[in-house]
User: What shape does this take?
Amino acid sequence: MLTSKLIKMRIFKLKFIIFLIFAQMLFSFSPTTTEEKNVIRVKKIIEKIKYNKNLHQIQKVTINENEVNSYLNYRIKKENIKRLEEIKIKILNKNIIEGKAVINFDKEYKSYSSVFNIYFRGRIMVKGKYVKFDFEKLFFEEQVIPVNFLEFIVNYLSKLEGYEPLSIFNWYELPYGIKNIKTDKGKIIIYY
Assistant: This one.
């Protein structure tokens, strides 16, 4: 017959094993990554702007650099932009944006020789209901290139993928509800 001390010891061991199993499950379960949380927040902001009922009073919302980068890369995957692998931007004061776009001309074979980086710097310009990105500097790897060359790359990639080419020089209508866009270091401020 088991003694009460031995029974208590076995119950303690059983409880400890159950605790370890639950602890492992608890610590290994992550409901969403930071990237996913950032995307969810930006999507909520977009919905808020889209369905804004207070059209007479200008409101503003701030989106930080990490949230913008997460959302841009989410859109690249969602829109299945095949040749553009990643984009990362740095938000500076006075509507200035610096960034890097990773382009793979031969994504099927994932060859390192077909992956290139384009570095850029420019300014977000807003005029009335329209916006455009005015490129100031552009680099293909370490080589300075004219902005017209980027226009050529965009047209070339659009034709490869069967999209209608867009011009990087055109003004485009702001998304519905947005009245202005400004930047401070590390964040974009959207007025709606």
